[in-house]
Amino acid sequence: MRTYRRIAYEDRCQMYALQKAGKTQAEIGQALGFSQGTVSRELARNTGRRGYRFQQAQRSAQARQQQIRHQPRKLTSQVRRAIARKLRAERWSPEQISFWLRATRGIDLSHEWIYQMIWANKRTGGDLWQFLRRRGKHYNRRGAQHAGRGVIPHRVDIAERPAIVDRKTRLGDWEGDTIVGARHQGGLLTHVERKSLLTTISKLSRPTAHATHRATVHRLNPLRDHVHTITYDNGKEFAGHRKTAQCLHARVFFATPYHAWERGVNENTNGLIRDFFPKGTDCTTIHPATVAKVERLLNRRPRKSLGFQTPNEVFRALAKRG
Fold this sequence. Notes:
322 residues; alpha/beta; five-stranded mixed β-sheet; 13 helices; 7 strands
């Protein structure tokens, strides 16, 4: 019984010479130790317009191997269809789909491969990219130095943030972000306290660095005794963070680009706010009284993660303890 081996460059050289000498596929296979079917497939795959040539055949074989090596074997046609359904019908993110595949099907497929599948689909005229939340943004390699919406001067990375912030054991660690209105006209500035989920919402006529700084100080200065850190995303509207930190006597950090889970509390809260102000809302038409009403509703809403207490109740109780 023959032992399996790949066709090597030397085999292709001999195959070329034997074919030129008029040998049949069976005779070539017998001379080289391959079956007739192996020889037949090799000639069919790698024969060009000028016939079978060993150098061209070697390059073609190497190119196929390289392509196969860089394709995830788990990304089968069935899995691709499941991913497309989750994107189109349920608007799940690639990270959520990756977790779902691992939890329900035992398929460990990273969200990066799902993104690559989406962009490959777009290059062939597909529409999967339209179901991404950031579909209009240019795709940058995650974690790249210049990834995201802009480079922040004097930016302090979240890696330097005190470990106590991650534990959520104290009052005074906040997360912040902006919700941009339709056509980038106006926006909402949101801050959420990680321990109590207390939320502040400020209307911005223009999401500039100056306006963002003023709104932040205006809303958080009355709570300054309970503002130790603020963690932002990488939007240019937070470029005045050093001045903000100085006014509030707090430390400001920035999450890793494209790592939304590092500000999960704020991201979830912004999703709740979107129930009142859906995407496409012109924020310049929202009355400040309406913004204040939504803020009150959220801070008076019982939360399961707080034992069905409200953010107001938890914040006040912890503030009294000092």
